# Entry
Amino acid sequence: MSAEPDLLFEGRGAAGLITLNRPHALNAVTGAMVRSLARKLEEWETDPAVTRIIVTANGERAFSAGGDLRALYDLGRAGQHEEQLAFFRGEYRLNGRIKRFAKPYICLIDGMVMGGGVGISVHGSHRIAGDKYLFAMPEVGIGFFPDVGGTWFLPRLPGQLGTWCALTGERLKSADAVTAGVATHRVASARFPELAQVLCGNMAVDAAIGAFAEPPGRGPVLAYQPLIDRCFAHNTVEEILAALDAAAAGEGAHAAFASTASASIRAKCPTSLKIALAQMRAGIGTDFEECMRTEFRVVTRVVRGTEFYEGVRAVIIDKDQSPRWRPPSLAEVTPEQVMRYFDPLPSELPLP
# Structure
């Protein structure tokens, strides 16, 4: 465990430099980090000496693998739901601040970027993918749902790619991420320090990044875009699975891809799957602020349920990888039950 702060801030030339500094925890985002980052962004947004923000991360494995799930689990098990919701309230407000930030907000992303780490990067103006870049929203595997603005950005990926990401939790590498728009540019990891140095100067941000950017190449996932679009266009998880199973009955790479997607979905939490699909369908016609309010409505109910705690127990606490979902099947999760997660709250999420 390092005695250094979890976030490092530095004014360097024209840039406000932010470094995620919890490499021992894969730079998982804590409540204190959310509050500290929000305060610093508020300060730098009105500082004329700071013309752009650069976000980097220490450690070889992850930009940020998500939120601090163990801390949230412990709070919930202790019945401290208001403390949990204070974290999500602050996190979602931070997502909104980044989305509306008045200056370029540039993330240099190498390694895993998932969950809460996506929330502090994907809403920024520039997301640079390095060699080890690996994006995922795997929340349905732990009884949760793709939040931190997933209701907004996932339905806006090409075709049904966002629905595929939400229901399978599968990963995108740099080529697919740039093509899909999750990342904006591809730069070799070895050039990140040099790019950061140039960005701290006064060169225009787009010109500086353009001088380092490489063609993204052809990724493995988007080759299956027609299959994804066809199978994931349905409006129930059961219909999506039936379409995948039909595709898997064929031969070749497309059949194997469909079979893998089907098996992945079947391993996830039934309630979370249906919540996530409802998010994808609602989000496409909803503005950003309403998407964030929707997620706060959902999380308010999720933290008072059972599935999140069972998922974290199985994956992180006991690590037996055998969650016992309640209800255990998709057929037992009714549309009425799902819609109750989306009901308005007496006090909605306030956004900056």
